[in-house]
Amino acid sequence: MRLGVMLAGMAILGVSACGKPAEKTEAEAAAPAFTPSQTPPKRKPGLWEQRVSTGDFVQVSRICLDAAADEKISFWGSQATRDMCEKNVFSARVAGGYQFSSVCDMGSGGKTTTSGTATGDFNSKYVIQAESSTEGAAAPQMNGLHKVTVEAAWQGACPEGYKPGDMSLPGGMKINILELPVPPKG
Q1: Facing residues of 155 across strands?
Q2: What would the pLDDT profile of 107-158 be if each residue is shown by its tens digit?
Protein backbone atom coordinates (compact mmCIF):
# COMPACT_ATOMS: atom_id res chain seq x y z
CA MET A 1 0.00 0.00 0.00
CA ARG A 2 2.73 2.49 0.91
CA LEU A 3 4.47 1.99 -2.44
CA GLY A 4 1.17 2.62 -4.19
CA VAL A 5 0.66 5.85 -2.24
CA MET A 6 4.18 7.01 -2.99
CA LEU A 7 3.73 6.19 -6.68
CA ALA A 8 0.35 7.96 -6.74
CA GLY A 9 1.90 11.05 -5.14
CA MET A 10 4.78 11.05 -7.57
CA ALA A 11 2.29 10.55 -10.40
CA ILE A 12 0.43 13.67 -9.30
CA LEU A 13 3.69 15.59 -9.49
CA GLY A 14 4.60 13.92 -12.74
CA VAL A 15 1.46 13.52 -14.82
CA SER A 16 -0.90 16.31 -14.00
CA ALA A 17 0.60 18.54 -16.66
CA CYS A 18 3.06 16.87 -18.89
CA GLY A 19 4.37 19.84 -20.83
CA LYS A 20 3.14 18.55 -24.19
CA PRO A 21 0.53 20.74 -25.87
CA ALA A 22 -2.94 19.43 -25.17
CA GLU A 23 -5.46 18.26 -27.69
CA LYS A 24 -8.57 20.19 -26.71
CA THR A 25 -12.20 19.17 -26.76
CA GLU A 26 -14.68 21.56 -28.39
CA ALA A 27 -15.64 22.98 -24.97
CA GLU A 28 -12.00 23.46 -23.99
CA ALA A 29 -11.19 25.07 -27.35
CA ALA A 30 -14.10 27.50 -26.83
CA ALA A 31 -12.80 28.46 -23.36
CA PRO A 32 -10.64 31.59 -23.24
CA ALA A 33 -6.89 31.01 -23.43
CA PHE A 34 -4.66 32.09 -20.57
CA THR A 35 -3.94 35.78 -20.53
CA PRO A 36 -0.82 37.08 -18.76
CA SER A 37 -2.91 37.63 -15.61
CA GLN A 38 -3.98 33.97 -15.75
CA THR A 39 -0.47 32.55 -16.02
CA PRO A 40 -0.06 29.63 -13.60
CA PRO A 41 1.71 30.82 -10.45
CA LYS A 42 5.29 30.04 -9.58
CA ARG A 43 6.25 28.73 -6.17
CA LYS A 44 8.53 30.83 -4.00
CA PRO A 45 12.15 29.62 -4.20
CA GLY A 46 13.35 27.71 -1.16
CA LEU A 47 12.44 24.57 0.75
CA TRP A 48 8.89 23.26 0.48
CA GLU A 49 7.46 20.56 2.74
CA GLN A 50 4.91 18.36 0.99
CA ARG A 51 2.41 16.14 2.81
CA VAL A 52 1.06 13.58 0.35
CA SER A 53 -1.96 11.75 1.73
CA THR A 54 -4.35 9.14 0.50
CA GLY A 55 -6.80 7.58 2.89
CA ASP A 56 -5.12 6.99 6.24
CA PHE A 57 -1.56 7.14 4.89
CA VAL A 58 0.53 10.33 4.93
CA GLN A 59 4.03 10.71 3.52
CA VAL A 60 6.09 13.85 4.13
CA SER A 61 8.89 14.97 1.85
CA ARG A 62 10.81 18.20 1.32
CA ILE A 63 11.98 19.67 -1.95
CA CYS A 64 14.43 22.48 -2.68
CA LEU A 65 13.38 24.80 -5.52
CA ASP A 66 14.74 27.76 -7.42
CA ALA A 67 12.98 29.42 -10.38
CA ALA A 68 14.49 27.02 -12.95
CA ALA A 69 13.67 23.90 -10.89
CA ASP A 70 10.12 25.16 -10.28
CA GLU A 71 9.68 25.51 -14.04
CA LYS A 72 10.75 21.89 -14.57
CA ILE A 73 9.10 20.46 -11.45
CA SER A 74 5.94 22.52 -11.54
CA PHE A 75 3.27 21.90 -8.93
CA TRP A 76 1.04 20.40 -11.62
CA GLY A 77 3.62 18.29 -13.48
CA SER A 78 7.18 17.36 -14.31
CA GLN A 79 9.49 18.04 -17.23
CA ALA A 80 10.42 14.36 -17.13
CA THR A 81 6.99 13.36 -18.46
CA ARG A 82 6.53 16.06 -21.08
CA ASP A 83 6.44 13.68 -24.06
CA MET A 84 4.32 11.09 -22.30
CA CYS A 85 0.95 12.86 -22.29
CA GLU A 86 -1.62 12.75 -25.04
CA LYS A 87 -3.91 15.22 -23.26
CA ASN A 88 -3.14 18.06 -20.89
CA VAL A 89 -5.58 20.77 -19.84
CA PHE A 90 -4.82 23.47 -17.28
CA SER A 91 -7.17 26.37 -16.56
CA ALA A 92 -8.10 29.01 -13.99
CA ARG A 93 -11.63 27.84 -13.34
CA VAL A 94 -11.98 27.38 -9.58
CA ALA A 95 -12.12 29.91 -6.76
CA GLY A 96 -8.65 30.54 -5.42
CA GLY A 97 -6.89 28.27 -7.86
CA TYR A 98 -6.74 26.13 -10.93
CA GLN A 99 -8.24 23.01 -12.40
CA PHE A 100 -6.20 20.45 -14.35
CA SER A 101 -6.55 17.13 -16.15
CA SER A 102 -4.29 14.89 -18.18
CA VAL A 103 -3.96 11.49 -19.81
CA CYS A 104 -0.39 10.17 -19.73
CA ASP A 105 1.64 7.03 -20.32
CA MET A 106 4.04 6.81 -17.38
CA GLY A 107 6.21 4.19 -19.03
CA SER A 108 4.59 1.45 -16.96
CA GLY A 109 2.66 -0.08 -19.81
CA GLY A 110 -0.57 1.64 -18.80
CA LYS A 111 -2.34 4.98 -18.99
CA THR A 112 -2.93 7.33 -16.10
CA THR A 113 -5.83 9.76 -16.19
CA THR A 114 -5.62 12.54 -13.61
CA SER A 115 -7.91 15.43 -12.71
CA GLY A 116 -7.94 17.83 -9.81
CA THR A 117 -7.51 21.31 -8.41
CA ALA A 118 -4.59 23.34 -7.12
CA THR A 119 -5.41 26.17 -4.72
CA GLY A 120 -3.45 28.52 -2.47
CA ASP A 121 -1.11 31.48 -2.77
CA PHE A 122 1.89 29.38 -3.97
CA ASN A 123 4.12 31.76 -2.00
CA SER A 124 3.61 30.23 1.43
CA LYS A 125 1.26 27.29 0.82
CA TYR A 126 -0.86 25.41 -1.69
CA VAL A 127 -3.10 22.35 -1.78
CA ILE A 128 -3.55 19.91 -4.65
CA GLN A 129 -6.52 17.57 -4.60
CA ALA A 130 -6.49 15.01 -7.38
CA GLU A 131 -7.99 11.78 -8.50
CA SER A 132 -5.82 9.52 -10.61
CA SER A 133 -6.83 6.32 -12.36
CA THR A 134 -4.32 3.95 -13.93
CA GLU A 135 -5.13 0.99 -16.16
CA GLY A 136 -2.78 -1.56 -17.67
CA ALA A 137 0.32 -0.82 -15.57
CA ALA A 138 2.80 -3.66 -15.12
CA ALA A 139 2.93 -3.02 -11.34
CA PRO A 140 -0.50 -4.07 -9.98
CA GLN A 141 -0.40 -1.54 -7.11
CA MET A 142 -0.31 1.31 -9.65
CA ASN A 143 -3.60 0.24 -11.23
CA GLY A 144 -6.93 1.51 -9.98
CA LEU A 145 -8.30 4.72 -8.58
CA HIS A 146 -6.15 6.83 -6.25
CA LYS A 147 -7.33 9.98 -4.50
CA VAL A 148 -4.41 12.10 -3.39
CA THR A 149 -4.06 15.35 -1.48
CA VAL A 150 -0.78 17.26 -1.48
CA GLU A 151 -0.47 20.00 1.13
CA ALA A 152 2.67 22.05 0.69
CA ALA A 153 4.11 24.78 2.91
CA TRP A 154 7.17 26.96 2.36
CA GLN A 155 9.81 26.32 5.03
CA GLY A 156 12.43 28.97 4.25
CA ALA A 157 15.74 28.88 2.42
CA CYS A 158 17.08 25.53 1.23
CA PRO A 159 19.42 24.00 3.81
CA GLU A 160 23.16 23.85 3.27
CA GLY A 161 24.05 20.88 1.10
CA TYR A 162 20.81 21.03 -0.89
CA LYS A 163 20.64 22.05 -4.52
CA PRO A 164 17.56 22.78 -6.63
CA GLY A 165 15.64 19.57 -7.32
CA ASP A 166 16.89 17.79 -4.18
CA MET A 167 14.07 15.97 -2.40
CA SER A 168 14.31 14.32 0.99
CA LEU A 169 12.03 11.33 1.43
CA PRO A 170 11.00 9.37 4.52
CA GLY A 171 13.78 7.24 5.96
CA GLY A 172 16.45 9.80 5.12
CA MET A 173 16.62 9.01 1.40
CA LYS A 174 17.58 12.01 -0.77
CA ILE A 175 17.11 12.15 -4.54
CA ASN A 176 17.31 14.89 -7.13
CA ILE A 177 14.16 14.91 -9.25
CA LEU A 178 15.94 16.78 -12.04
CA GLU A 179 18.45 13.93 -12.36
CA LEU A 180 15.95 11.03 -12.52
CA PRO A 181 16.04 9.06 -15.77
CA VAL A 182 13.16 9.65 -18.16
CA PRO A 183 11.02 6.49 -18.39
CA PRO A 184 10.79 4.98 -21.88
CA LYS A 185 7.56 5.73 -23.71
CA GLY A 186 5.19 2.93 -23.91
Answers
A1: none
A2: 767 899 999 999 999 999 999 999 999 999 888 888 999 999 999 999 999 9
Q: What does the alpha-carbon distance between residue 82 and residue 21 come to, in Å, rounded to a whole number?
A: 9
CB of 167 within 8 A of CB of 174? yes
**Cβ partners under 8 Å of residue 50, min gap 6:** 60, 61, 62, 63, 150, 151, 152
User: What whole-number distance in Å separates Cα of residue 77 and Cα of residue 33?
Assistant: 19
Which residue type, as a one-letter code, is found at position 44? K
Q: 148-163: b or e for each residue (b if 16 or more CB lie within 10 Å)?
A: bbbbbebeeebeeebe
Amino acid at 178: L
pLDDT of residue 121: 92
Kindly list the distances between the CA atom of residue 45 and the CA atoms of 27, 119, 121, 144, in Å, as whole numbers in the listed order: 35, 18, 13, 34
C-beta of residue 117 within 8 angstroms of C-beta of residue 129: yes
- The model scores a pTM over 0.85: no
- State whether residue 9 is helix, strand or coil: helix
